[in-house]
Specification:
Blueprint lengths: L17 E8 L5 H13 L4 E6 L3 H14 L4 E4 L3 H8 L4 E11 H4 L9 E5 L7 H5 L2 E4 L7 H13 L4 H4 L5 E4 L6 E4 L3
Parallel strand pairs: 1-2, 1-5, 2-3, 4-5, 4-6
Antiparallel strand pairs: 7-8
Helix pairs in contact: 1-2, 1-6
Bound molecules: S-adenosylmethionine (SAM).
The site of S-adenosylmethionine has 17 residues, from β4 and α6.
Amino acid sequence: MRHPLSSEPVTDRSSTRLSVLRLGHRRERDKRITSHLGLTARAFGADEVILSGEEDPSALETWNSVTERFGGNFECRYEAKPMGWLRRFSKSGTIIHLTMYGEPWREAVQNISRDAPIVVVVGGTKVPGELFKIADHNVSIGNQPHSEVAALAVFLESWVGTLDELTRFVGGEIEVIPSERAKRVRNSTD
Ligand code: SAM
């Protein structure tokens, strides 16, 4: 299989861990959008979401509960010191910062190494200026302000490509059977 935007074959994803780091979460204001961000990360092929900013067990509970019900090995955790974590990560992995000020994603995605683990960083409140410097790629999904959820979905679609949902989301209680007109699910307890 080939990546839609690249002549390179899609890398075996098991060898390149893909994390999403949510910076600056505000428990009350960002409740729904952070929850949706983690669910989008999971659905579009990330291996984990890392929450930072205000601690929020309810976000982690939502992500774990969806993984339990719908399958897969998606992980989530809280990181109290995200910039320190990023500085350490940068020694062996690739940092991709999604920002409306960055390089256009269609070009940038072709220059990102597929040999090392990557972390995709999205902001909430204003991001620290240092992030622009330590990121290996500052990537824009268009140069207009919009949503971190939309930016992440578009980036992951162009980076991961088509997911094999049947092999990725195994072991859950519920499997959705795609249907043109009906709501069909298979329940592991049936
Ligand atoms: N500070 C604003 C607020 O609290 O209302 C929100 C900032 S923006 C919605 C949050 C994040 O969305 C940014 O840090 C960035 O990661 C992502 N984002 C927004 N527009 C983007 C774009 N055009 N390209 C890439 N990322 C974008």
